[in-house]
Amino acid sequence: MARKKSLWCYFFLVVLKETSASVECSFIDAQEIILMCIPVGVPDVILKLESLPLNGYTEMVLLRACGITELEHDSLKTTSLKYIDLSENRLKELDSDSLHNSPSLAYLNISNNLLSRLPVDLFVGNPHLLVLDLKNNFLSNLDVGVFDSLVQLYKLDLSWNLFLGKDLSSLLFVNNKYITYLSFAGNDMNGTPDNLLQSLEVLEVLDLNSCGITEVAKFATQSNLKSIKELNLSSNKISKLVNEEIFKNLHNLEILNLAHNELEHIDENVVAPLKNLKVFNLSHNELTYLSDNLFRRMLSLENIDLSHNLISKIEVQMFLNNPLKILNLSFNMFTFLPNTFSMSLRKPNANITEFYFHQNPWQCACLKEILHEVDHLKVTHKTDVPGYMRPICVTSLEMRCIRDDSVNDVFRNMYYNILDGNRIWNTIRDSSNRCLKPRLHSAHFRAVSREVGR
Questions:
Q1: What is the pLDDT of residues 321-369, one digit of tens each?
Q2: Phi-psi region of 439 (alpha: psi -120 to 50; beta: other; left: phi over 0)
Q3: Which among 6-10, 25-29, 298-302 has the top mean pLDDT?
Q4: Three-state SS for 408?
Q5: What is the mean pLDDT of the chain?
């Protein structure tokens, strides 16, 4: 106990070669398990790490944002070391033996550096590595064999590098069958071999957001990937889903993210195999129409996000088989919903708790009906978004909900004329809640920008 108390008071100064800068390291626990280092001196000085005050008890070393450009082969020499954070430094390369003296290493974070290559034998001395974070580097290729010794690896983040999917070998993960999380986000994955992930047996999360793909990648939906629960395809260039075979193997998929694509059409048979899907994000696309049967076979679907599309019509029966809890229809083109639409979302197999419908060109009478229903059901909702200079609804002289597709364009035009007329909207905002009704079309219609009376 005396030894532990005395060491608790010491701070170690690690002098870095070829510069006047340094990093100051100290154990932040009495047991000397966790060593944290911070840069000392001029922040922009390039540092070269030579050694650390490690001992046989140290398990965690935190070297985040220390300006390190190079590691000596014995810098991290201790058999007890399990966790290394080298993120946000200036490492351009690692020697083959940089990590060989840390056989117990389980977690390694080298993200946000300047690495352009990895030696093929870099991880030979780390057979127990479980988590490897390489995101935000400049890696453009991976040699076959570089991950072969990582037989226990379960999380691998390769996002935001310079990989070209077409250059990746189908043998890259031949010994990594236990990977459960894999991210290629931010890389160009066009032309990736269909069998790139052929050796993976228990993959649960695959992140392919911002990969520039124009269709659902076949390598992400192969027969050995039935274990996938979450597939992120957001921020790509997918314009349609018409291949009825593409999701046939993903029986256990629970979360599918297709937000921020260019989707205009979804064939109902394409998503039919996704019977266990719970969360379906289709926001920020160009959808104008959805088949009434699109979600019919998704008997576990709880959360549907259709916001930021161009949808103007939706039917009650579309959600009859879904145990919905959250539905987002905001930022679309609706002027009305079917009669008692909100009430129909509360049924024996569903307990809707959140329903978002703000920022649509609503008829005021229709919006009033919806608000009455959601208030009665005590469902969370929004009528407006703070900071958005937008009208809430428009109305005819009759002040009744006109459920007629033929007049949709009239109401939408009124709404967007107000939206485009910032001068009018600003006047409304400054009028101390007075209701202004500028004539925008004919004597039969008026536009109103106000919160609907309850």
A1: 999 999 999 999 999 999 989 888 887 777 899 999 999 999 999 999 9
A2: beta
A3: 298-302
A4: helix
A5: 86
pTM of the model: 0.87
Torsion of CA 419, 422, 428, 431, to 10 degrees: 170
Radius of gyration of the chain (CA): 29
Which pLDDT tens digit goes with each residue over 104-125?
999 999 999 999 999 999 999 9
Q: What is the DSSP string of 293-318?
A: TTTTT-TT--EEE--SS------GGG
Give the residue among 251, 308, 314 at the shortest CA–CA distance from 284. 308
Taking the C-alpha atoms of residue 66 and residue 47, their distance in angstroms, rounded to an integer, is 8
Residue 265, SS3? strand
Q: Is 20 exposed, middle or buried (0-12, 13-18, 19+ CB in 10 A)?
A: exposed
| CA–CA gap between residue 224 and residue 91 (Å, rounded) | 36
What's the CA gap between 397 and 47, in Å, rounded? 73
| C-beta of residue 238 within 8 angstroms of C-beta of residue 267 | no
H/E segment holding residue 258: none
Count CB atoms within 10 A of the CB of residue 209: 17
**288-298 residue pLDDT tens:** 999 999 999 99
